[in-house]
Every structure is written in structure tokens, then in C-alpha cells.
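Exercise 3.2. Students should predict the tertiary structure of the chain below and write it as C-alpha cells, then compare their answer with the key that follows.

Predict this chain's 3D structure.
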Amino acid sequence: MPDDLKLTLPERETKPEGTSTAVLILLSLILIVGIVNIIVSLSRGSAAPPPAGAGLPPEAQKDLAMKLEKQELALPAAQAWEEYLTAAQPNTEERAKIWYRIGKLRQDSGAYDKALESYYTSERFAKLDELAPEISRRIQECLEAKGKFAALRYELAERVGVGKQKTAGADEVVAEIGPQKITKADLDRHIEERIERQLARFAAYMPEEQRKKQKEALLKRFSSTQERLQMLNQFIVEEILYRKARADKLADDPATRSLLKEAERSILAQRVIEKELADQIRITPGDLKTYYEAHKKKYVQPERAQISRILVKDKKTAEDVLKKLKKGKDFAAAAKELSQDLATKKKGGDIAGWVERDSSIPGIADSKEAMAMILKTEAGKVIEKPIKTDTGFHIIKVRKHEPERQKPFEEVEADIYRALRGQKEREVQGRLFDELKRRYNVVIHLSKFQEQKPGPQKPEKASKAK
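Answer key:
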């Protein structure tokens, strides 16, 4: 091995101690700055992006708001106007006008809660005579759109110039349960909530506009002193019974707990369905008309007639009655005198309602011959020959006759709503149940519910006599 081959490492050059410390401090500062930059960048990344136009000069912000308005972008325009208020800091009168403008934009887009907030904010800055009637009208429209008729009543009372007196009336105590005070406004809210719960059950059968009108009619009905007093008494009875049940610890009874649990289960399940239907079903007038056009045949009124009849036992009597009628005898008088049909005799033989093609005839059943003769007879005429059935002979007069016709949309709109709503409800519920069954891993063992058919019985072997 060569003598000059060295396996030892060369020694490092020693540096002054102060230089090493300075480097460590510099590296620490760089690390801290890097961490701060990362945190800032992460926080910026997670924050919502600034709204369009944020940071613009006031006049540019105002131009943006007006441009968004012209493009009918209501909610972005409302947001732009709010940003203008922050940037420009106008006087109170100008603020009142802009908040009113924001309210209109929100109302037009259906954001009624936010619209109400805007109108009230406008009035807090300044009550301007030029805006007062419009604000009052629009507040009324928003409350009506939300179905808040009790709140609307007090709002209107406050705005007709006797606000203080009416507001005091709303706070007037109408009943007391110990320290609890029940005011007129409390009673109104209770009545309105009760009506809303009742009408909610008819969501599938009644369009929203119709439900709103029905609610208005019911609220008007409960505006009478007698109805309000009855509702107040009902509320008080329920409350004191509830308090007694709590005092007697009935809620701790196992049977009661079981009932409450079952009721909670049922109510919450129903609420899930109601929420899904409310979130997913939107039926517009256009939807109804489209459905009508696609299902027109379903809304055809078949040919029909209104009839009266005289029932007699035999053919000879029937022919004698027909002769008298031809000579001018009044049909109703003849029915009262001669008919054996007790259900129609006193009514001059009139059968209520309509008989339609391919339907049964009351008291005559499914006689195609009778229906054909009825529909080819003119209104006001008597069928020329009696109709025989198991109950006897019928002399029939056609009181009214209507040919087949296509029912107009306006006549069947409620029926269309029920049909379309029912269809959409079935679709929504079907999707919901399928999704929940997958989510909660539902398995139904259908084989366990199949009836077991008995197999052939093997004959028993005769036992040998011992």
C-alpha cells in the first residue's frame, strides 16, 4: 500500500463564533417569514372571493349597480348598491332612497325577507313622503307573499295614522295563566299557525295561490269575537292540561314515553317528506298548461243528460202513462201520482246529477239500450217507449242534454294541479326512499314472506298388530 494514501478526513476550518450565531438567527427569521406567508396564503384561499366591484371608486360602483339593474340581475344589483353605500357614505335622505331601491330589487327576485329588511332600513334613515305610499304597498305585498296576514293586519293598522293606538291594542292582554300573559298578538299568531298547519295537509290538492286565498278567508272567519274567544279557550284548555300532565309526571310513564317516541318518529318522518317536497316541487302556471296540452283527452266531458223517470209495474200501465203525457199531462205531476220509485216520486221523478255515456243509470243500471235512447232524445222530450228492467217499466224524460266537449283549462286547473302534484310527489318520494335505503343499507328478505306450499303427503304405513 502506498505510504502517501491518507484515510483521515481533513479538519474543518474554524469560523468565528459570532458568524455562526448570525447565520442561525437569519435562518430562523427566514423560516418564520415563510410560515407566516403560508398561513396568510391559506387563509386567503379559504376565504370567499371579494364581491364583484369591491374596492371600486363610488361613481364606478354606482355605474356598476345601475348596469346590473338594466341587465335585470336583481340580487347582484342589490349587492352592488350596498357596496356603493359603504364606499360613498351618502346623506341620510340618499341612503333612504337607495335602501328602498335595494328592497325593490330583492322583492322582484322573491327574497321577501330581505326586501322587508331593506324597506324598514330605508324608513329608519328617513321617512320620505314621496316613498311612504310605495313602501307601505310593497311591505303589504311582501307580507302577503309570505302568508303573514296577522302581521300584515298590525302593519296596516300602524300605517293608517293610528299606529300607537293599534300597537297598544296588539299588546293588550286578553288572558292570563299565572304569570304568563296572552296578548291579542299572541292569539293572532296562534290562530294563524293553526290554520297554516291545517292547510299544509292540503298542499297536494290545492295550488299555493288557492291556499293563500283559503287562509285569508279562514283568518277573516276567525276575526269574529265568538270565534276568537273559542280559539282562546281551546288554547288555554290545552295549556293547562299540558301543565297538569307535566306536574303529574305523566311524561315519565313508560306507556306515555312510548307514545311520545312513536309520535316524534312519525312527525319527524313526515317533516322530512314535507321538506323534500317543498324543496323539490315547484309547479308554475306554465307547467299546468303544458300538462293540460299533453293530457287533453283526459279532460273531455263525455256526452251526458239529466233525466226524470216514472216507474210502474207492467207494460200496459206504462203505455197508458205515455198516452197521458202525450196529451199534455205534466210529467212531474204524473210521477208524484203514479211512480213507484219512492226515492224520486216526491221530486217529480227527478234523478239528481248527470248520466254519462258508458256509465250506469241510477235505478236502471248498465242498460246500453236505455243510455242510447236517452242520448238521442232532445232536451224536454219523453222517450217514446218504456224501458223494461227487473224492477219494472221506466218512462224517462230528458230534462237537459249536453254533447261531448273539451273542458277548457280554466275549468280543470285544480284537477290538473292535483294530478301533476301527485305525479311529482311520487317521483320525489321514490327517489328519496331509494337513496335512504342505500344510505342505511336496507335489506328486506322477501323470501321470508312467501307462503310455504304444503308438499305431497306420504301415506303412513299401517302398523302391524302385535
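Discussion points: The two ends are 115 Å apart (CA to CA). Confidence is low (pLDDT under 50) at residues 1-17, 42-50, 162-168, 462-466.
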